[in-house]
Amino acid sequence: MPKKPIKRSFKIWASCDAKTGFLYQFEIYTGKDDSTENEGLGYNVVMRVCNNVPSNTLVAFDNFFTGCNLMEDLFDKNTYAVGTVRSNRKDLPDVLKNKKQPKAMKLAKHEFVSVTAEPITAIKWMDTKEVTVLSTAHQPRDVMMVKRTQKDGSRKEVLCPKAIASYTLSMGGVDLFDHFRSSYPISRKSRKYWMRLLFFIIASIINAYISYNDSHVATIHCHRDFRLRLARALIDNYTTRKGHAQQGIQFKNKKVVSLEFQKKYDY
Question: Distance between terminal CA atoms of the chain?
Answer without folding.
Answer: 46
